[in-house]
Amino acid sequence: MIHPIVVGNWKMHNNYAGSVLLAKEVARYSEKIKHIDIVLAPPSIFVYPIYESLRARPSNLYLGVQNMMWENEGAYTGEISSIMVRGIAEYVILGHSERAKFFGETNEQVNKKIKNCLKNHLNCIVCIGEYDKYDLEDDYERELTRMKSDKGILSGLKERLTGLSAEDLENVSIAYEPVWAIGTGNNASGMYAGAIASIIKEFLHKELGISSSCRVLYGGSVDDKNAREFAAQTSIDGLLVGGESLNALRFAKICKIVSEVKSGR
Ligand code: PEP
């Protein structure tokens, strides 16, 4: 059975005191939220103090970072590596669209990062998403072809996952994040996100030989009002939450909704 997951991507927000407080508040709420994994991805400088301040955290609450380098060490000013992360955080978000938009990150670089991350026994959350909405209702087959063509989400995903075995991918989750929905308040509909999550799963299974246990998350303007719509989709195994993860109560509500819907309670 796939274990649902909700990830909070704090991006470059908050200061030291605010970050530790936010993490503590989420930890307090998480104690009562069962049946899902919850991951907090603060700015990397705050991961260690949060790790220290949450020594007695609930067993379903994990820490993550928002990016890392593909080498273990070296002359890479400003970067952190997976061997630095290991032992402090369990997850790494890789290939977020903001990394491509602001830093020119390529699929090839994301692929190298995933490989390094897995070699060092970290779990990856690999993001993928289109810039312009697919029009599945107008012509499903045409849009499926577009997804598989150059610059389509499926060909992008294939490039990101090149050279990885089905076994490697046991520790990879895919975050489907349409770029037009990130930080815009213009979330995808549950049906649209569910349809694409299911296309991604089929692609992973049929074309890349990856088992159906690979989690596919949705991300893009998720809040406590629309979370149920996404959680209700059988193809969506969790959520990647940006803006709303900066508010402990609302983030906890989203986690609770996913827990309730997925466990049928
Ligand atoms: C994100 O950062 O991946 C994200 C989905 O952000 P938001 O929830 O703010 O749209």
UniProtKB/TrEMBL annotation:
<dbReference type="GO" id="GO:0005829">
    <property type="term" value="C:cytosol"/>
</dbReference>
<keyword id="KW-0324">Glycolysis</keyword>
<dbReference type="GO" id="GO:0019563">
    <property type="term" value="P:glycerol catabolic process"/>
</dbReference>
<protein>
    <recommendedName>
        <fullName>Triosephosphate isomerase</fullName>
        <ecNumber>5.3.1.1</ecNumber>
    </recommendedName>
</protein>
<dbReference type="InterPro" id="IPR000652">
    <property type="entry name" value="Triosephosphate_isomerase"/>
</dbReference>
<dbReference type="InterPro" id="IPR020861">
    <property type="entry name" value="Triosephosphate_isomerase_AS"/>
</dbReference>
<keyword id="KW-0312">Gluconeogenesis</keyword>
<keyword id="KW-0963">Cytoplasm</keyword>
<dbReference type="GO" id="GO:0006094">
    <property type="term" value="P:gluconeogenesis"/>
</dbReference>
<keyword id="KW-0413">Isomerase</keyword>
<comment type="pathway">
    <text>Carbohydrate biosynthesis; gluconeogenesis.</text>
</comment>
<comment type="pathway">
    <text>Carbohydrate degradation; glycolysis; D-glyceraldehyde 3-phosphate from glycerone phosphate: step 1/1.</text>
</comment>
<dbReference type="InterPro" id="IPR035990">
    <property type="entry name" value="TIM_sf"/>
</dbReference>
<dbReference type="GO" id="GO:0006096">
    <property type="term" value="P:glycolytic process"/>
</dbReference>
<dbReference type="GO" id="GO:0046166">
    <property type="term" value="P:glyceraldehyde-3-phosphate biosynthetic process"/>
</dbReference>
<dbReference type="GO" id="GO:0004807">
    <property type="term" value="F:triose-phosphate isomerase activity"/>
</dbReference>
<comment type="subunit">
    <text>Homodimer.</text>
</comment>
<dbReference type="Pfam" id="PF00121">
    <property type="entry name" value="TIM"/>
</dbReference>
<dbReference type="InterPro" id="IPR013785">
    <property type="entry name" value="Aldolase_TIM"/>
</dbReference>
<comment type="similarity">
    <text>Belongs to the triosephosphate isomerase family.</text>
</comment>
